Amino acid sequence: MMNFFNQLSDMIFLAFIVGIPMYAAVKKINVFDSFIDGAKDGFQTAVNLIPYLIAMIVAIGMLKASGFFGLLEQLIRPLLEFFNIPLELIPLIMIRPFSGSAANGILADIIHQFGGDASISKIAATLVGSTETTLYIVAVYFGAINIRHTRYVIAAGILVEIVGVVASLIIGRLLFS
Amino acid sequence: MLNIIWLSMMFTAVFCGLITGNLSKVVAAVTESAKLGFDIAFGLAAIMTLWLGIMRVASDSGLIKKLSRYLQPLLVKIFPDVPAEHPAMGAMVMSISANLLGLGNAATPFGLQAMKELQNLNKKVTSASDAMCMYVLLNVSSLQLIPTSAIAFLAINGSKNPSSIISSTLIASVISTIFAFILARYCSRLNAFKEENL
After folding, report:
1. Distance between CA atoms of residues A99 and A97, nearest Å
2. What pLDDT, on the 0 to 100 scale, is given for residue A13?
3. pLDDT, mean of each 10-residue run, chain A (177 residues)
4. What is chain B's percent helix, strand, coil content, to nearest 5?
5. Measured between CA atoms, how close is A93 to chain B, in angstroms?
6. How confident is the model at residue B104 (pLDDT cuts 50, 70, 90)?
7. B191-195 long-range contacts, Cβ below 8 Å, gap at least 24?
8. How far apart are CA B64 and CA B55, in angstroms?
9. Residues 110..139 of B with a Cβ closer than 8 Å to A: which?
């Protein structure tokens, strides 16, 4: 099973990275020149992003080190207990909007601890799959093009994140327990 | 808004650090995270260079135009301000395809390219257009067909049926995507958020 999915994602990856240039070659495009042209653009965009990335990552790093997420956990614990949400998911839910790699780390930890067939593992996996690193996306996407007024996006993004979390908790419980 | 969030994140960190006695850790985190940010940025630069190169090949070969034709009827309804033939549509098609297929690290470069193209259509360059808000919110709702890395985690830890999370993830992300769409439409029409009132 694992092999199948590893292979599937390899196949999808190769379809993009090799399939597209092959298709272009059939269409008689100078593939190399075309690639270099686009790649230059990509590099430039990435360099423009550095200040925004560092600003966000420093603030998130400070928050993590300060014990903020632990305090937040204690604050919302009664609420989660009331709705019968597994406490093990709290750190995952808290960190998800801030950092994708941290969320993946916590997910791996939960799955490792409870096993691949536990309902909590599957609920956690669903949660990670159906939500995004909202704050990071907003900062980077708007930062890249120098947008200062993001209007309603941040508040709306947090709402969307909450809906995604609640939906995956409910659906996860219906399907896996 | 980002201004306030950034400031309050740092203020909260110092405040919590004082309460919990972790202030020296917070100080250490500043330089560590700055270094980490730089590393991430360079990792991203490598990936962006690669994927936007591939994207240019795809657009020069006419592949994106072809793909767009299938998604266009839908995209034109979601983004009424973006002309059907505009390059922004192509970039959005690429980023949506990468997202659906679970190629997260390709989706970001395509998404950033889409934002750049949307900026070319933007009337007021310092504030987000309706199309940008819609696009970012749809990204945040994370529509995914194959959550490859989560499936791999489950499989490594002895799951007999790791692909069962495909359906649950799809249902949950469809719900949040529909919610994101309705919310973005609604907010764009509110007077308080109107582009011309900023």
Report:
1. 6
2. 77
3. 65 84 92 92 82 85 88 84 84 87 85 90 92 89 89 93 94 88
4. 80, 0, 20
5. 15
6. low
7. B193/A151, B193/A152, B195/A151, B195/B123, B195/B124, B195/B127, B195/B129, B195/B130
8. 8
9. 111-113, 115-116, 118-119, 125-128, 132-133, 136-137, 139
Cα–Cα separations (whole angstroms), residue B62 to A20, A176, B105:
10, 44, 23
Residues of chain A contacting B162 with CB distance shorter than 8 Å? 1-2, 5, 116
- Choose from B15, B49, B67, B160 for mutation: most chain A CBs within 10 A: B49
pLDDT at B50: 87
Please indicate whether, in this complex, the C-beta atoms of B2 and A24 are within 8 angstroms of each other: no
pLDDT of residue B165 exceeding 70, the answer is yes
A chain contacts of residue B56, beta-carbon cutoff 8 Å: 34-35, 37-39, 41
Lookup: tokens for A117: 């067939």
Structure tokens at A116: 């691949």
